[in-house]
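Shipment paperwork, digital attachment
Item: protein structure file
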Amino acid sequence: MLPAAPLQLPRLVVNADDYGYFAAVTRGVLETLDAGSVTATGVLANGPALPRYAEALRDRPGVDVGVHLNLTLGEPLTAGLRGRLGASGGRFAGRAGLLAALATGRFPLAEVVAELRAQVERCLALGLAPRFLNGHEHVHMLPGILPRVGALAAEYGIPHVRFVTPEWRAGGLAPGPLARSAVLQVLALLQRGSRPRGGPTLLGAGVSGRLTRAALAARLAHLAPGRDYELMCHPGYRDPEEVRDPALLAFHGWDEERELLTGPGLRTLCLARGVRLVRFRDLEDGPGRSREDPIGRTP
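Attachment content:
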């Protein structure tokens, strides 16, 4: 009788959103990249800190870079959308403003796609070749947008597009997390026909901005052998002098996430659970055939 084939370990990409958002956030992301725990980062192409820190990513070719598509923060890259934002001084007006603009037709989808394309092009112009696309505040999951993001990914040869699903248990019974999970559930159902095939399962949406060791341990405990996962995280430094928005300061535990991801916590949990820490590029080799495992764990 032939011996049973060994189970392949689950593989995990740890992906820090918001590179280029604020200098304090970007410095924290760089720390986690250099610690080897975070293996990918999503670039906010219109982020005010990106021009200053683009070279730092070019100097780290082992890190996977993607575009963190943005329609809610800062100034659009395209004149078309800037011209439609006169009431907010030519700047995006947050989630509520985006939803209102899409619902009323003030943001035609053609101009939205032009803006998203410009954000991909900005990254390419900075020497950053994207390997994945996702959305700031999950804007890429909105009705009508995800199929067009998928088309952009195909056009530019970008292999991965994040598909967001809710984590109902993550936030307990708190009203905020429950409402967020409900919204994500509706979006996932509406977009199920546009779901990318074969992509990693997303973790961390239920504790977005507040990833703790306990939350991380709970997620890693339930990963299935041979499956691929992406952990969304938001490391950084808390700097009230730079970040003046009280809502952002209240929402994000930047320091706590940075400390979790630069200390032994993540790596220890991965080793204990038999989880391979990899990059998006390693997933393209197929299950169990990663080119490199940054934590040194082999099947």
